[in-house]
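REQUEST ID: PR-0412
SUBMITTED BY: lab tech R.K.
PRIORITY: routine
TASK: structure prediction, single protein chain
INPUT:
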Amino acid sequence: MNHIPMRAPADPRHSPAAIAERLIPAEQRRGRGAATNVSGRFEALKREEFDDGWTREEAPEPLVTEVTWERSKTIIARNISPDIPFDRSINPYRGCEHGCFYCYARPTHAHMGLSPGLDFESRLFAKEGAAELLEREIAAPKYAPAPIAFGANTDAYQPIERQYGVTRSLIEVLQRARHPFTIVTKSNLVLRDLDILSDMARDRLVKVFVSVTTLDRALARKMEPRAPIPQKRLEAIEALNAAGVPAGVMAAPIIPAINDSEIEAILTRAYAAGAREGSYTVLRLPLELRDMFREWLQVHYPDRLKRAVSLLQSMHEGKDYESQWGRRMAGSGPYAWMIGRRFETAARRLGYRESRAPLRTDLFRKPAPTPKDAGAQLSLF
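STATUS: complete
OUTPUT:
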């Protein structure tokens, strides 16, 4: 007897009329990825934008990015997930101005009392004293080196990095300590740090993956409104490899009925730019993202909404999301299987490596320990 996945019952919040009621006016969210700013799931009072019938004489003000310094107790985050090839990561910032509507990190903004919607891409937090924290943590007597991942949650090279430089300060610490690290980014701003990256690459201590979600500039602007255009990302792959920094490509996420037709084209263009390692993931919709996906489709591709949701659910046993290790990144079922085989076939045909070259850990030089309260003063700006 064949197993037929059970579909989740229809959610009234997903009807076109319900979505239309909570959309932020287009003028106010111009240049942003999310279409709403609904309260986070932990808030006692819920807020949603709606038209109360009173007309405005002036156009609504566009959202302005606000950045707040925050002081963390630690900077290295640990994980035990078998889905990902690293056990530690660093996020120099909370929230991300790139505005990718599909970002699986969006729900974390609810822990700050903010919305995973427009708040996530306009109300950002920079980690103050991050370099001092990192130096202290890797100087600990029991610390053992292993590659640290940047970009596992939010992009370390998002636009505010130009002003705040938190990422630069962190990789300077790793350079002095000869500590391996990896970077995943959508931004060609990574080229600013070629001096550090090329130095580390000579000792096989760094690797970069550039995320190329689509080659269609118009689609990229809808999906990732403040990220560099696809051509700039391909140029970053080429420039990194030319400087001796191994740079691969991430075709992620694969979104049914939106960019799933581009797998082979992305791999081909990235290979021509010098990429020799590649990976992919399928779209993940934890928590608030299941609503945000439908809102984004309703705004940009209402004619594809039903098909996109149907195909997505076919990869998750009739649900919007599966959190189980081994299934959340690649999905399951015939459609997920097809995506995987297309990626593998194209990568093999083009000549991508089937396994990733490891980074070295034997060159690590533990920094001299610093006092626990060093650098603890808060900035006044």
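NOTES: The chain has one domain: 12-38+64-350.
REVIEWED BY: pending
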